[in-house]
Write a structure and sequence with these properties.
Layout lengths: L21 H14 L1 H15 L8 H6 L2 H10 L15 H21 L9 H13 L4 H40 L8 H36 L5 H17 L1 H4 L2 H10 L5 H15 L9 H13 L6 H14 L8 H8 L7 H16 L19 H15 L5 H8 L4 H4 L2 H9 L11 H20 L15 H28 L4 H7 L9 H5 L3 H17 L3 H14 L7 H26 L8 H20 L7 H15 L4 H24 L4 H21 L5 H17 L21 H14 L4 H6 L8 H23 L9 H4 L6 H18 L1 H23 L8 H15 L9 H15 L17 H5 L8 H14 L2 H5 L6 H11 L39 H8 L88 E2 L37 E2 L1
Antiparallel strand pairs: 1-2
Helix pairs in contact: 1-2, 1-5, 2-6, 5-7, 6-7, 6-8, 7-8, 7-9, 9-11, 9-12, 12-14, 14-16, 16-18, 17-21, 18-21, 20-22, 21-22, 21-23, 22-25, 23-26, 26-28, 27-28, 28-30, 29-30, 29-31, 30-31, 30-32, 31-32, 32-35, 33-35, 35-37, 37-38, 38-39, 38-40, 40-42
GO cellular component, one term: cohesin complex
Organism: Buteo japonicus
Family: Belongs to the SCC3 family.
Length: about 1150
């Protein structure tokens, strides 16, 4: 016991175990075993017991005289039940290292003992007996630790069996070679020696087989369907290792079926282990023939797992199917299509795995005749056909707005293909070869879009929006690749882009994509590569495109291209700036000239003049978005245009819309100029005047007959009011105070009216007013998106206190009616306003309920039915409002009190004209107000009740008629718990329902009670006016629970896949089960053998029925292929191996 190895056993400090040399420790233990095997085994038993987290120690007396089941029962009684944690589940890198060290120790132990000790029928019998008994324990720590140990022990034994098989094969080969020699040269003594060696190896292999059978039957067949997912995962992970390591013995249907069945497990962790185990098998192409039946049976399940709710599982399922592609014609076209569409997944690992599958299936196979043209480039390169295939796939997928996602999915596996821009450029510019099909217009558009996405990905080095958590820091190698790619892009497209623009100049879609390319150029190359003439050609093409097109997307693309090229850091700036200035000069002169003719008095403008003005205005507006055009003084001419439109009322809507937008840009550029540089007082006053005048113009256009004009005016007004609010002075910009603009009540009212008229409408009404727009799903979604943006713009004004908070009442009251469309926006607005001012927010909420109540009165009169849907809807809205206040009553105390105060005043505001014997006209509102009573603290309920009594007469308190029910129910809601002076506070941690305390936790010596409200504080609260502050009350400490979490005990009825009770004789089987001792094992290909387990993809709700019921299965014996003339071990030593723990009648599995 004093041997060196003993010091590392975890009797005092488990973590010391991770810092030792297992080789020397095991060697010392072997020496001790040879000296006294009982003492050495006792140390090993205590090692396993204490690695489970048990503080008990098995004594020599217990070891000699007690059965395993009795020892385990004794250890269970001494287990520390104060915590559910044990070494294998503890967090932290050291405990993770402990787990790997524990597994490594078992492997070293078997490896060092494989030549003698494991065959003595004592050491292994004892260890297997102990681990089997522990794995049957209802204590999770014992079961988990022993299962891990048993599975690692089995893995080590499989390795020993494999070595024995190899040695037997070598011995047999040597024997055959010696025996085939002629008699004169044959050595009989060597033949006899080889026969003896083969016999010893055979006996050893029989021993190993029996040990593995004991572990497999006693541990694996029960624990692979344990209630704990970690235990099931261990079993599946290890059986995968066995099948991969010793495929001749384990890679057959009898073992594969366990993996196939467990792919239906409800826990993603277990399903993931199944897939990784199968990947190790499918990776070896030589094993494919043994997997054919398994593949045909479980292929559909694997395909369905590509849509697993756990992304990690879905990724591994796709990777497994990629390996399955090695087998020809296994996956059908439908199977492949189920994976193809995942390249558009928002989850990048899933998309990348699907991209690799797609590439392997469609792009990785090269025709033999392509080998002769590997060195060809451009249109004749082998990538040409692959690029076409990519275009065809993109078009067939019918997700044309997601080319960036397709490119990103294939970026890691098909980089060379996606970066072959020379080939793509050749396909677009060069004429098709003899017999080659030319690209259609649609295919050319798709190719340009894909080419743009590949260039963007190479230049920016990050996934598209929605595929990443943000820009990551690039490594030095990635930065070099990025610079090389940008150089390659610039050198190629600086020359090719003008040609491409010239070819497709009239196609708006193609030109828009092509014009984005210069954003990713290295502009220095224009100078260093002497490419100025190509720059001039590019500028000429952009100018021509501006003159030809009036499409907003094309014009904005031209504007952004000029902005990208006009970089003062590069020498090409002057050249580009001159070209830009010349273009703007011409546009501004043309606009002023056209406008003068267009606005001449007494003449009716014709359509051609209007078109010329509109097209020029569109171009100027698009350029003003990205460029400062202040020196062209565009405010004056736009003001004239808008002013004339207001006076005459016949201005074309598109001209008004773009004039408003252009003027908006003028204001913003002037503000940016003033903010960035020192400005004079005159500049501030001029901007202030222009901004105020512009806001008045927008306000006039809010009443325009055209919906599009009103929406544009509303959107711009919201932006201007937000920008020029008090927020403009933040960040030390006090000099901008003269620019602060607060909307008056009339403007606020008009903005709110716009929202009510154009946002809170039925979908059908909107479609009917949309100028005959086709009523289809796409148009509905687009219209809803537009309305959501309008509502969000107004709610932003509320949140930033640009408009009065009480205007939100008209928004909040729509919460239930339009929950599906705008619920998230309205709820977020509530949350933000509550953070700004809790009391004012509460007053706004109650105001919205009052407005709804008044609307109901106007519609139905005062004698309405309180069970009507309208009234019930208001009550439900009040309940929803109450839920938004959360659980912390202390934080919302003042707000809830003020809400009740306003509600009570509203209820008694209108006395009944028939006299005091009749209820006030708004008394039914108390029924709605009672929804908020639960949010009051108990002492505040008394205070509110006292305030309520101020409005009640003595006769009211005696009334019991139905019309007085709202008052009665509201009073009862305030009286409930109101007499108790102990506060009911839920703050931070909700109060526990149970009062059970852990025996080690000291009870509290006393509790602090909050005194009742004094009469003075009551009067203070009752006499408050509209602004109310917190009643004078003592602060209540947060309540914390003293309940210690009891250790989770595992019960057989909680089992998900069968956990066996500690005493098998008490187990009542529902049916009679028969054990078939069949060497063949059982085939997994019979239809009645797969357990009925819920498909995770279909539903994750409910519990799977215990698979033990009504099922039967055969437990096979492990039969190693090379060995012959097996001998069965009839029994293990009874003192150390409980036969009941290795069940001759295993629990049922197959449906009967």
């Amino acid at each position: 016991a004093s041997a060196k190895y003993f010091c590392i056993l975890p009797q005092k400090k488990l973590l010391a175990f991770i810092f030792v040399s297992f080789q020397s420790v095991v060697d010392d233990w072997i020496e001790s075993y040879k000296h006294d095997r009982d003492i050495a085994l006792l140390d090993l038993i205590n090692f396993f017991i204490q690695c489970s987290g048990c503080k008990g120690v098995v004594t020599a007396e217990m070891f000699r005289h007690m059965q395993n089941s009795e020892i385990i029962r004794k250890m269970t009684e001494e287990f520390d039940e104060d915590s559910g944690d044990y070494p294998l589940t503890m967090a932290g890198p050291q405990w993770k290292k402990f787990k790997s060290s524990f597994c490594e120790f078992i492997g070293v132990l078997v490896r060092q003992c494989q030549y003698s000790i494991i065959y003595d029928e004592y050491m292994m019998d004892t260890v297997i007996s102990l681990l089997t008994g522990l794995s049957d324990s209802q204590v999770r720590a014992f079961r988990h630790t022993s299962t891990l140990a048993a599975m690692k022990l089995m893995t080590a034994l499989v390795n020993v069996a494999l070595n024995l098989s190899i040695n037997m094969d070598n011995t047999q080969r040597q024997y055959e070679a010696e025996r085939n020699k002629i008699i004169g040269k044959r050595a009989n003594d060597r033949l006899e020696l080889l026969l003896q060696k083969r016999k010893e190896l055979q006996e050893n292999q029989d021993e190993i087989e029996n040990m593995m059978n004991a572990i497999f039957k006693g541990v694996f067949v029960h624990r692979y369907r344990d209630a704990i997912a970690e235990i099931r995962a261990i079993c599946i992970e290890e059986i995968g290792i066995w099948m991969k390591m010793y495929s001749d013995a384990f890679l057959n249907d009898s073992y594969l079926k366990y993996v196939g069945w467990t792919m239906h497990d409800k826990q993603g962790e277990v399903r993931l282990k199944c897939l990784t185990a199968l990947q190790g098998l499918y990776y070896n192409k030589e094993l494919n023939s043994k997997l054919e039946l398994f593949t045909s049976r479980f292929k559909d399940r694997i395909v369905s797992m590509t849509l697993d709710k756990e992304y990690d599982v879905a990724v591994q399922a796709i990777k497994l199917l990629t390996l399955v592609l090695h087998s020809e014609e296994v996956l059908t076209a439908e199977d492949c299509e189920n994976v193809y569409h995942l390249v558009y997944s928002a989850h990048r690992p899933v998309a990348v795995a699907a991209g690799e599958f797609l590439y392997k299936k469609l792009f990785s196979r090269r025709d033999p005749e392509d080998d002769g043209i590997l060195k060809r480039r451009g249109r004749q390169s082998p990538n040409a056909n692959l690029v076409k295939t990519l275009v065809f796939f993109f078009l067939e997928s019918e997700l044309h707005e997601h080319a960036a996602y397709l490119v990103d999915s294939m970026w890691d596996c098909a980089t060379d293909l996606l970066k072959d821009w020379e080939c793509m450029n050749s396909l677009l510019l060069e004429e098709p070869l003899n017999g080659e099909e030319p690209l259609t217009d649609r295919q050319e558009s798709a190719l340009i879009e894909i080419m743009l996405c590949t260039i963007r990905q190479a230049a920016e080095c990050h996934p598209p929006v929605g595929r990443g958590t943000g820009k990551r820091v690039l490594t030095a190698k990635e930065k070099k690749t990025q610079l090389d790619d940008r150089t390659k892009i610039t050198e190629l497209f600086a020359v090719a882009l003008p040609q491409l623009l010239a070819k497709y100049s009239v196609d708006a879609e193609k030109v828009t994509n092509l014009l984005q390319l210069p954003q990713y150029f290295d502009l220095e190359i224009y100078t260093t590569g002497r490419l100025e003439k190509h720059l001039d050609a590019l500028l000429r093409q952009i100018r021509d495109i501006v003159e030809k097109h009036t499409d907003i997307d094309v014009l904005e693309a031209c504007s952004k291209t000029y902005h990208a090229l006009c970089n003062e850091e590069f020498t090409i700036f002057n050249r580009v700036d001159i070209a830009r200035s010349q273009l703007i000069d011409e546009l501004a002169d043309k606009f002023n000239r056209l406008l003068e003719d267009f606005l001449q008095e007494g003449e009716e403008p014709d359509e051609d003049d209007a078109y010329q003005v509109l097209s020029t205005l569109k171009r100027i507006t698009a350029f003003h978005n990205a460029h400062d055009l202040s020196r062209w003084d565009l405010f004056g001419c736009n003001y004239k245009l808008l002013k004339t439109g207001i006076e005459n009322g016949d201005m074309p809507e598109q001209i008004v819309i773009h004039a408003l937008q252009c003027t908006h840009y003028v204001i913003l550029w002037q503000l940016a100029k003033i903010t960035e540089s020192s400005s004079t007082k005159e500049d501030l006053l001029r901007l202030k005047k222009q901004m105020r005048v512009f806001c008045q113009i927008c306000q006039h256009y809010l009443t325009n007959v055209n919906t599009a004009v009103k929406e544009q005016a509303f959107t711009i007004l919201c932006d201007v009011l937000m920008i020029f609010s008090h927020q403009i002075m933040t960040g030390g910009r006090d000099m901008l105070e003269p620019l602060v603009y607060t909307p008056d009540s009339s403007l606020q009212s008009e903005l709110l009216s716009f929202i009510l008229d154009h946002v809170f409408i039925d979908q059908d009404d909107d479609n009917n007013s949309a100028d005959g727009q086709q009523d289809d799903e796409a148009s509905k979604i687009e219209a809803l998106h537009k309305r959501r943006n309008l509502l969000a713009a107004f709610c932003k004004l509320i949140v930033y206190t640009v408009v009065e908070m009480n205007t939100a009442a008209d928004i909040f009251k729509q919460y239930m009616k339009y929950y599906n469309d705008y619920g998230d926006i309205i709820k977020e607005t509530m949350s933000k306003t509550r953070q700004i001012d809790k009391i004012q927010c509460a007053k706004t909420l109650i105001l919205s309920l009052q407005q709804l109540f008044n609307e109901m009165i106007q519609e139905n009169g005062y004698n309405f039915d309180r069970s009507s849907p309208t009234f019930s809807g208001i009550k439900e809205l009040a309940r929803r409002f109450a839920l938004t206040f959360g659980l912390d009553q202390l934080k919302t105390r003042e707000a809830i009190a003020m809400l009740h105060k306003d509600g009570i005043e509203f209820a008694f505001k209108e006395p009944n004209p028939q006299g005091e014997s009749h209820p006030p006209l708004n008394l039914a509102f108390l029924d709605i107000l009672s929804e908020f009573s639960s949010k009051l603290l108990r002492q505040d309920k008394r205070t509110v009740y006292v305030y309520l009594e101020k409005f009640m007469t003595f006769q009211m308190s005696l009334r019991r008629e139905d019309v007085w029910l709202p008052l009665m129910s509201y009073r009862n809601s305030l009286l409930a718990g109101g007499d108790d002076d102990t506060m009911s506070v839920i703050s931070g941690i909700s109060s526990r329902g149970s009062t059970v305390r852990n025996k080690k936790t000291k009870p509290a010596t006393g509790k602090r009670k909050v005194p009742e409200e004094s009469s003075s504080s009551d009067s203070m609260w009752l006499n408050r006016e509209q602004t109310m502050h917190t009643p004078v009350m003592m602060q209540t400490p947060q309540l914390t629970s003293t309940i210690m979490r009891e250790p989770k005990r595992l019960r057989p009825e909680e089992s998900y896949m069968g956990v066996y009770p500690m005493q098998p004789e008490h187990h009542q089987a529902p049916l009679d089960y028969k054990y078939v001792d069949d060497r063949r094992g059982t085939s997994l290909m019979e239809d009645d053998e797969e357990p009925i387990v819920e498909d995770v993809m279909m539903s994750s709700e409910g519990r799977i029925e215990d698979l033990n019921e009504g099922m039967d299965f055969d437990t096979m014996d492990i039969d190693l292929p090379p060995s012959k003339n097996r001998r069965e071990r009839t029994e293990l030593k009874p003192d150390f191996f409980d036969p009941a723990s290795i069940m001759d009648e295993s629990l049922p599995f197959f449906p009967t």
